[in-house]
Amino acid sequence: xxxxxxxxxxxxxxxxxxxxxxxxxxxxxxxxxxxxxxxxxxxxxxxxxxxxxxxxxxxxxxxxxxxxxxxxxxxxxxxxxxxxxxxxxxxxxxxxxxxxxxxxxxxxxxxxxxxxxxxxxxxx
Length: 124
Hints:
Layout: E1 8-12, H1 16-28, E2 32-36, H2 39-48, E3 53-58, H3 67-76, E4 85-89, H4 92-96, E5 105-108, H5 113-123
Parallel strand pairs: 1-2, 1-3, 3-4, 4-5
Helix pairs in contact: 2-3
């Protein structure tokens, strides 16, 4: 039986199919989910209620605002800076270059859902 969770996981992913499949796995486990198609939309949503999100799952390659630009903005905002970020990307070489972003983890696509749930459970 899914747990009643008070905080949400934010998924920042431009690919609708990937975004929805991550959301489906998380909601089936009782997590509340917020969705954003790119970094700018994610920042707008986060600024409405920054304490509502326990972890951000962040794609790197997106239109409008990519993952690197999102993370730069997030770090500069004191209300958002401490929300943990896990990068999820199809580019294995990009996953190796995210160290300077100060993220708590990386995953490559396709995502191992058991690992995803373990990581999310650590922060939520």
